[in-house]
Specification:
InterPro entries: AAA+_ATPase, P-loop_NTPase, Signal_recog_part_SRP54_M_sf, Signal_recog_particl_SRP54_hlx, Signal_recog_particle_SRP54_M, SRP, SRP54, SRP54_GTPase_dom. This is signal-recognition-particle GTPase. It is built from 23 helices and 12 strands. It is α/β, with parallel strands linked by helices and about 525 residues long. It binds guanosine-5'-triphosphate.
């Protein structure tokens, strides 16, 4: 069946106003079946159009002839909700705690309407608020555009940040165990995954371990033929764990790369189902255990992923039927609620309709504002570049001062803890946690002294280098020793020298001799 179908309902304008029953029925369909587009007749007048469209929040509504086409777009509802938040910020010159309070309420409402759970929505709002107020104004960027960017970044984080790739076994066949409730699309996913893996050049085998529904084995066999992949089955009499084990043996003998095990679904989570899965898991030691969940079940899907993870320990989720989901609560909540990533999404009934889950692409789709995002990113880059150029000029003219020093250390702090940054630098992963803690302590230590310097002293460190009185005062105000202040001043000059040498080396210029100053401070102390 095509994923898009058109359902035509007739309703007179007057009738629609008196009783919204018909559209309500249609809206139920909209949630349950993968029907995306409705054609409602009888929406000639604006009032009738409004009455008919009211049960379809977030859906695109377009007049067509005497009727109206309602289209449930993926996350349409959330996109519409967020739009009202941006609109409320038009005309403000910067984001403040006060002026973002109402847009934040809109975002919270939009998330709850998208079926995101209350705690997830709450923590999302908290981090967006904190980041929105804390970010510097970027020249040329409107505050509402800046908020779009913050919301985008937080959405990406909420959905897991990075794409979570399938893991393959180092030796022998990779076993992927699929679990899930009845009707979520598990059997279809088996074929879709096999199709996807075949395209990657992997050989696959499907194992029919759903012994309760004979039709499931037939369905898998048909799908296997369709994608050109062998299906291992032992009928309905054998135990699922035995079938899986034998299937794996056969795959090994045929040197198959990936074995995908289809298991039985139940109407709800029960002990028998969990025990059976545990047995299969024990028998074949899967590389991946993926729970297939239906996107249209919203936050229930997220809770289910959490429950399965606690019970059997899963490696991720596959979210199906996203094509019929206009709300998006499941996609947004799964990672946050369960701690497990969404690895794939299903967006239709065809075998081609499976793709890896990219949090960043999904966030862009929700916001529908790709152009705004790239504009803000570019503006940020320009700012960073200008900052860098400014710094370069200062270093070359020997003006790198305590303000720059503080700015640099704060920028590092803003980017995350020292430990993360250090871990990201190639070749630096051998730094011990104790060394990292020491580095963090050092930054705080230096900051406490810089904070008590006068504006003049920060800008012209020479003042401190030349005056013992000043160094004594700073030491007293910061509760440190004179020697510690002197050390800091020397450090800044040494840093200047090193940086200048580095830059000059890059630009082929000579460096002014700055080490003398640092030496003279030392001499004065002795
Ligand atoms: N629109 C849409 N339909 C899907 C998607 N995935 C599966 N379906 C449909 O959902 C229905 C159920 O799919 P199955 O694969 O049989 O589900 P199952 O989880 O194996 O069901 P049981 O074997 O009963 O546990 C079928 O009609 C599929 O075509 C999807 O991503 N989008």
């Amino acid at each position: 069946m095509e994923a898009t179908a058109t359902l035509t309902l007739s309703s007179s304008p007057a009738g629609a106003r008196r009783s919204p029953a018909r559209p309500t029925v249609a809206s139920l369909h909209l949630r349950r079946v993968p029907t995306l587009s409705f054609h409602l007749r009888g929406a000639q007048s604006p009032a009738a159009f409004r009455a008919l469209s009211s049960p379809f929040p977030g859906c695109r509504r377009r007049r067509r002839g005497s009727g109206m086409v309602v289209r449930a777009e993926m996350f349409g509802q959330l996109t519409t909700g967020l739009e009202s938040a941006w609109n409320k910020l038009r005309g403000v010159d910067r984001l403040t705690k006060e002026n973002i309070a109402e847009p934040m309420r809109d975002i919270r409402r939009a998330l709850l309407e998208a079926d995101v759970s209350v705690p997830v929505a709450r923590s999302f709002i908290e981090s967006v608020t904190e980041k929105a107020i804390g970010t510097d104004v970027i020249r040329g960027v409107q505050p509402e555009q800046q908020l779009v960017k913050v919301v985008n970044d937080e959405l990406v984080q909420l959905m897991g940040g990075e794409v979570s790739d399938l893991v393959f076994a180092k030796t022998g066949p990779t076993v992927i165990l699929l679990a899930g409730l009845q009707g979520v699309g598990k059997t279809t996913v088996c074929a879709k995954l096999a199709f996807y893996l075949k395209k990657m050049g992997k050989s696959c085998m499907l194992v029919a371990a759903d012994v309760y529904r004979p039709a499931a084995i037939d369905q898998l066999t048909i799908l296997g033929k369709k994608v050109g992949v062998p299906v291992y089955s032992e009928g309905t009499e054998a135990k699922p764990s035995e079938i899986a084990k034998n299937g794996l043996k056969e795959a090994k003998s045929k040197k198959t790369d990936v074995v995908i095990v289809d298991t039985a679904g139940r109407l709800q989570v029960d002990k028998a189902m969990m025990n059976e899965l545990k047995e299969v898991k024990k028998a074949v030691k899967p590389t991946e255990i993926l729970l297939v969940v239906d996107a249209m079940t919203g936050q229930e899907a997220a809770a289910l992923v959490g429950a399965f993870n606690v019970e059997i320990g899963i490696t991720g989720a596959i979210l199906t039927k996203l094509d019929g989901d206009s709300r998006g609560g499941a996609a947004l909540s799964i990672k946050e609620v369960s701690g497990k990533p969404i690895k794939f999404i299903g967006r239709g009934e065809r075998v081609e309709d499976l793709e890896p889950f990219y949090p960043d692409r999904m966030a862009q789709r929700i916001l529908g504002m790709g152009d705004v995002l790239s504009f803000v990113e570019q503006a940020q880059q320009v700012m960073n570049q200008e900052d860098a150029e400014e710094l370069q000029k200062k270093i070359m003219s020997a003006k790198f001062n305590f303000n720059d020093f503080l700015k640099q250390t704060k920028a590092i702090a803003q980017m995350g803890s020292f430990s993360r940054i250090i871990g990201m630098i190639p070749g630096m992963n051998k730094v011990t946690p104790a060394q990292i803690r020491e580095a963090e302590k050092n930054v705080k230590f230096m900051e406490s002294m810089i904070n008590v310097m006068t504006a003049d002293e920060r800008e012209r460190p020479e003042l401190l280098a030349e005056s013992r009185e000043r160094r004594r005062r700073v030491a007293k105000d910061a509760g440190k020793t004179e020697q510690q202040v002197s050390q800091l001043v020397s450090q800044l000059f040494q840093m200047r020298t090193r940086m200048q040498k580095m830059m000059a080396g890059m630009q082929g210029k000579d460096t002014p001799d700055m080490e003398n100053l640092a030496e003279s401070i030392k001499a004065e102390e002795q």
